[in-house]
Hints:
Helix content: 10-25%
Number of helices: 3
Distance between the termini: 25 Å
Order of helices and strands: EHEEEHEHEEE
Number of domains: 1
Strand content: 35-45%
CATH class: Alpha Beta
CATH architecture: 3-Layer(aba) Sandwich
Radius of gyration: 14 Å
Oligomer: single chain
Shape: globular
Number of strands: 8
CATH topology: Aminopeptidase
Amino acid sequence: MPQPYQLREIALHTPAYQQMKALRIDVLQKPLSLPMDALDFEHDEGRWMLGLYRGDALCGCLVFAPLPGGVYWMRQVAIDSALQGTGAGRQMMAQAEAFARQNGATAITLHARDYAVPFYEKCGYHIAGAGFDEAGIPHLPMEKAL
């Protein structure tokens, strides 16, 4: 039985990328009234943009930045708020990890907003250092070996 969600690459400067940017704004920026530059879109070039789809509908997204030594930095993880708590996020994480492995990753690192730490722990990530503020929001560094 096929998974109800499918992770797909999104090319920059396409309508799908514009949808991805809008989702990131709606989920990551607007609820916290962050300034528009908090999402750092200008650094999307050279990174993998991945969208989670159900049919043609974008349900979630994330950005992967490859780092030296086979580590991938996962950023800007967003799931449509109507789908949070439904398992869509866990499916996106599992598919993103498979994508990273297929592209040579041996580990994933991320900066988790403090309220998202339990979600990432359920996905097998562990806290990898002291907390810090990023864009005025408490975060914790987390990682997972693949």
